[in-house]
Design a protein that fits this description.
Distance between the termini: 67 Å
Number of domains: 2
CATH superfamily of the largest domain: NAD(P)-binding Rossmann-like Domain
Helix content: 40-55%
Bound molecules: nicotinamide-adenine-dinucleotide
Strand order of the largest sheet: 3-2-1-4-5-6
Shape: elongated
């Protein structure tokens, strides 16, 4: 089948590459000429496990094309997937300008029946707005009777395992309109996704509004679980409980399950923060308040500052003269995505208090430099106090503490003796609860995690956080 994907970002590129891998001929269209040139030059602009190989293979086979040529892109695909960004508007609602621009481009150039698929995450009612944008363009061209269908097909892939998720989806949600073009669209969509449902049916056909709401509901539920656990972790810190034990205790209930119950430094990325806010705005438009979601958002905002608060509790508000080793910049492992990453909040809190940072991330350092240059446009000199190192252990040199922000696998079993020897004092702030507090105690490391106060070593009195001039670890061993 000939398929066009509009937008070659995390979702568009993965969708395009995977559909090409299944034998379709896929035209990936993007407005970003630099991105298209990179892709045509064999480079992949994002880090996503397995993606580069699939792109290379299918480009070589002539099944995957990258271009900025809108007219050719619209001509190519019987199905046009819209996978452009839907960033938050000023009030938190989804900015649909890219989606509607893509829709208008289709209306401006289409000359036969097209199925237009909203793969971007969009508020309820967007299928209708896309339909209207396309219809207006067709009317301008005196083609008001040229038929097309608009379908909602939200994407559930996760960054970091996007290729795997796309190739083995746990569900495919397809919302079609209840009319003749909707039926025609449904059979084309069935054909596109047939290779994914050979083993068993996993497609849910529904009306378009339910499909649009399903995507927001899924992300809102996951974000709610995270904020719930973060609130409980903060309580656990106060009452002397270990949130990890609580997690296991409740996760064993099959009605609850273990997934997405980890306390940490808050959720980030391109989806949860904006989708939670956008769903609240959708509700407000209909005169409805989603009290739970407003709280989920507020809890997450403050959770992103929890690590900084723990550091300030230890070292005081003035961090000048302090250096922190920071492990992990990306909003989660296996991606270089820095959108809404908790590390950005932490870095601002530390640098504005005068600290220095030595940071390491397995893949996100180039993207972090790019993003932080924008974040600190108001105070670019502060960025002179952050440096990046290629090896995690090199971040420890002259650092007063190690701070862990992203749970990359490579950070799970480090050489604790080397950490202890490398730091000025054996102190770890763990925003992802990676280690066993008892093991840390045995290793002589002061371990401050999220919601685990009961199993942490009794913290030494505040003055112990002072760096020890000239002697590594003296006060701690
Ligand atoms: P992205 O920012 O990585 O990519 C969007 C791409 O669209 C960019 O390359 C941009 O240049 C291009 N673009 C913008 N306007 C265009 C136009 N008019 N024509 C052609 N190209 C255009 O975004 P993303 O992370 O891939 O997200 C895309 C959508 O999918 C969003 O709505 C997002 O919420 C949703 N989504 C994202 C994820 C995820 O994990 N990233 C998962 C599921 C759903």
């Amino acid at each position: 089948m000939n398929i066009t994907i509009i937008g070659s970002g995390y979702v568009g590129l993965v969708t395009g590459a995977c559909l090409a891998e299944l034998g379709n001929t896929v035209f990936c269209l993007d407005v970003d000429a630099r991105k298209v040139a990179m892709l045509n030059g064999g480079e992949v602009p994002i880090y996503e496990p397995g993606l580069k190989d699939i792109i290379e293979r299918n480009r070589a086979a002539g099944r995957l094309l990258f271009s900025t040529d809108v007219k050719a892109g619209v001509a190519h695909g019987d199905i046009q997937f819209i996978a452009v960004g839907t960033p938050p508007d000023e009030d938190g609602s989804a900015d649909l300008s890219h989606v509607l621009a893509a829709a208008r481009n289709i209306g401006r150039h289409m000359d036969r029946f097209k199925v237009i698929v909203n793969k971007s995450t969009v508020p309820v009612g967007t299928v209708q707005r896309v339909r209207q944008a396309v219809a207006e363009e067709l009317a301008q061209r005196d083609l008001p009777r040229l038929e097309f269908a608009v379908v909602s097909n939200p994407e559930f892939l996760k960054e970091g395992s996007a290729v795997e998720d796309f190739m083995h989806p746990d569900r495919i949600v397809i919302g079609v309109e209840d009319n003749a073009t909707g039926t025609r669209a449904q059979s084309l969509m069935r054909a596109v996704y047939a290779p994914f449902t050979r083993n068993h049916e996993r497609t849910f056909y529904m009306d378009v509004i339910s499909a649009e709401l399903t995507k927001y509901a899924a992300n809102a539920m996951l974000a709610t679980r995270i904020s719930f656990m973060n609130e409980l972790a903060n309580l656990a810190d106060k009452v002397g409980a270990d949130i990890e034990l609580v997690r296991q205790g409740i996760g064993s209930d099959p009605r609850i399950g273990y997934s997405f119950l980890y306390a940490g430094t808050g959720y980030g990325g391109s989806c949860f923060p904006k989708d939670v806010q956008a769903l609240s705005r959708v509700a407000a438009r209909f005169g409805h308040t989603l009290n739970v979601l407003d709280a989920v958002d507020a809890v997450n905002d403050s959770q992103k500052r929890v690590l900084a608060e723990k550091i300030v509790d230890c070292f005081g508000d003035d961090l000048s003269g302090r250096t922190f080793a920071l492990w992990g910049l990306a909003f989660k492992p296996n991606t270089d995505d820095m959108r809404e990453a908790p590390s950005r909040v932490l870095i601002r809190e530390l640098l504005t208090r005068g600290a220095r940072i030595r940071a390491h991330d397995p893949v996100a350092m180039p993207e972090a430099q790019h993003v932080l240059a924008r974040d600190f446009a108001d105070a670019p000199r502060l960025l002179e106090h952050i440096s990046y190192v290629g090896r995690s252990m090199d971040a420890l040199t002259d650092a007063d503490a190690l701070v862990i922000v992203t749970e990359w696998k490579a950070f799970r079993s480090p050489d604790f003796a080397a950490i202890k020897a490398g730091l000025r004092q054996p102190l770890i702030f763990d925003g992802r609860n990676l280690y066993d507090p008892a093991q840390m105690r045995e290793a002589g490391i002061d371990y401050r995690a999220i919601g685990r106060s009961s199993r942490m070593p009794s913290p030494p009195p505040l003055p112990s956080c002072e760096p020890i001039a000239g002697a590594h670890n003296a006060a701690w061993s």
